[in-house]
Design a protein that fits this description.
The protein is globular. With 246 residues, the protein is α+β, with helices and mostly antiparallel strands. The protein has eight helices and eight strands. The chain has a domain at 2-169: START domain (Alpha-D-Glucose-1,6-Bisphosphate, Chain A, domain 4, 2-Layer Sandwich). Helices cover 41% and strands 30% of the residues.
Length: 246
């Protein structure tokens, strides 16, 4: 259940405003667009450091399990220079070490040839029963977001992600979760495009707005599928400053 991905885009906003959008982890817009079951800042430390916790629903591709993945991370803000800033969101070292220990434990079980096959089947059946009791499973993610000032009211955003959902997660489920995580970056592009007025709309921003109007399941592979396109278009028109003028 491992995956990596990267997405790059530009937003019509200055550097600090763009960074603030991503730094505001528990904002209403992030709650609405990510679909997270829970999204909290557990601790605000010094030197621009936050301790985060969030839970996200993960659906099995077989339609059997609907379990939550819980991510506990440390978010930091780094200033490279006047034109470049970086937000890092990393899983704690303690959790990573615990995950490695669990993997080693499972590997050790597999090497115990003295176990009879029936005993192994019974052991795994018991493990599956215990997993069904808990609706929360630990997940691990490392996110790095690089912000580069590219001119007046223009910021380039490079969003990279490494995701670990556990060895029991299928490749397809992992890919869908990865795309959903990356789509959080694309939300920023749509959010800032919706703030642009008609007189300030560029060709590129018009293309983004047009793509959002005919958005069929998302730009990154079928995310946030909208069964009622008319309702979606109404929402886009309501949220866009340019379309409200029209």
């Amino acid at each position: 259940g491992n995956g990596r991905g990267i997405t790059t885009f530009r937003v019509k906003a200055d550097l600090l405003e763009t960074v603030a959008f991503f730094w505001d982890f528990d904002s209403r817009i992030h709650h609405e667009t990510t679909g997270d079951v829970e999204r909290l800042v557990e601790e605000r430390g010094e030197d621009w450091k936050l301790r985060l916790r969030r839970r996200q629903k993960l659906e099995s591709t077989h339609g059997v399990l609907h379990r939550h993945r819980e991510f506990k991370n440390i978010m930091k803000l780094h200033k490279v220079n006047e034109n470049i800033m970086i937000i890092s969101i990393e899983a704690s070292k303690l959790r990573k070490k615990s995950s490695s220990g669990l993997k080693g434990f499972v590997d050790s079980i597999r090497r115990l040839s003295s176990f009879r096959r029936s005993s192994i089947r019974n052991s795994f059946a018991a493990m599956r029963r215990s997993m069904k009791i808990s609706n929360v499973v630990e997940g691990y993610e490392d996110v790095y977001i690089r912000f580069t000032k590219k001119g007046w009211q223009t910021t380039k955003v490079e969003y990279s992600l490494t995701l670990d959902l556990g060895s029991g997660t299928s490749d397809l489920t992992t890919r869908r979760a990865l795309e959903k995580h990356l789509d959080e970056g694309a939300v920023a592009g749509r959010y800032f495009s919706s703030l642009v007025k008609l007189e300030d709309m560029t060709k590129k921003q018009g293309e983004i707005l047009g793509a959002d109007l005919v958005w069929d399941g998302g730009q990154l592979g079928g995310l946030h599928l909208r069964s009622k396109r008319a309702r979606h278009m109404e929402e886009v028109c309501k949220n866009s400053a340019a379309l409200r003028e029209v």
